[in-house]
Amino acid sequence: LNYNSNFIIWALFIAMVIGLIDKGAQSTAKVYIVLVPVIVSFLYSYKKSYLLLALFVSIYLLIGYLKSERIIPDSSAPTAFKQWLAEAVNLTLTGYILLLIGNSFKSRLYASLADLEKKNNELNLHRDQLETTVRKRTEELEMANEEMMTKNEIINTALNELKETQAQLIQKEKMASRWVLTAGVAHEINNPLNYI
Question: Quick one: what percent of the chain has pLDDT higher than 70?
Answer without folding.
Answer: 85
